[in-house]
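For the sake of clarity, the format in which proteins appear in this thesis is described at this point. The record quoted next illustrates the convention:

___
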Amino acid sequence: MKNPPKPLPTIKALLDEHVTLAVECLDRLYLNGYIPALQTGPGVVRFLVNHLKFPVASPALLGQTSKPFIDQVEAYIHKHKIPVVAFRKGQRKDKIAQQMRRRRPVRDAVVFVGIAQEKAHGFKATKDVTTRPGQLRFHYSRQPVFVKHYYFYLEDPDCGEAFIKICTYAPWPIKICLNGHEWAKRQLQQAHIAYQALDNGFAACADPQRLQQLCDQLGPEHIQAFLNRWLDRLPFPLDAPTRQAGYHPRLAIWQMEYSLTQVIDRPMHGPEFFEEVIRENLDLGRPDRVQLIFQRPITRRTPGKFAARVITRQVNPSLHISYKGFDQQYFKEGRGLRTEGTFNNPRDFDVDKDLHNLPHLKQIAHHINHRLLEVERASQDCRFNQQSMQRLIEPTLPSHGEKAPGLKFGQPRVMALFLALCLF
């Protein structure tokens, strides 16, 4: 006769008894950079006439500002012997970046420059027909254009792998991508604290408490310092005196990922966790349960889609719970259980996009990730795991030496005792 299958440990037991390291950290962070004084037509006119001292705010002047920038980038690439990659439509830029970083392992430098023709919102000029003869004035309005963008892929001493994308067309918006785990790795290296890296995370650390403190420290001031440092080093359409005169890029949060990584002691427990979670929580996408995780009141008029999806990639499943932002769980490299909250629009959670709101947004993401885990724990709170059951039914030997008998299920006295305990 075959032995019965071994019962799986509960979600609570896996998280309480088999986690060797737990780290919460800002993960990927995408930021938009914009110059507030150049977001409207009148702002462009003031820039050309009042700041640059041109008599007429001609659209040709914007081109005269952009052309030197392109020449500066080409000169910078030639001077520092930086590889250039022309991105084609449909290519995965992250994959190309990984390959280039392996080929050119530099520190505190530009790894390579990517060039792409992409959509941006520029300015279109029209003549003011109401002006008197002999006068010439222009009005500016925003319109979509396809123009050249430069991707500067960086290896920063503080932030590690990152990139800055700069548009060559006015009003010269930028985009920044950083990773909080890479920032934390650089801080550990500078503090001479040993750690074992997990792809985009940590598998072990000699000082877990210090590691968590560093992850919590990453804030707007570090990101702003990163931008200022590289604007002083890279070519930019507006020189330093112009930026100091009030035309400095301001950062806004475009997309943010905040993760909790729990390293499991044995690889087998990862699939066990997901088997339990998926079986017990396929209805997590229902509105009544979604509001427990995201802590948002949901009525019939609440916009957005509610969904729970199980995605199987080869043998590693992942669980996605969606409502505007979304939470996902997956098992990383057979070692780390990752619970990750993603914000595609901070305003969905009544948070403005400005960078100074990053700490508040991190706090919201922290609560969402932990509420998801609590909801998953609660689905099995009434179940004993195998280890707890074994401790209950077998005798134990306390430190004073007197053996305590076990509780044998099925015996009348034991069942009567359990009944009395349940009544109280």
About this structure: The two ends are 42 Å apart (CA to CA). Residues 59-80 form the longest helix (22 residues).
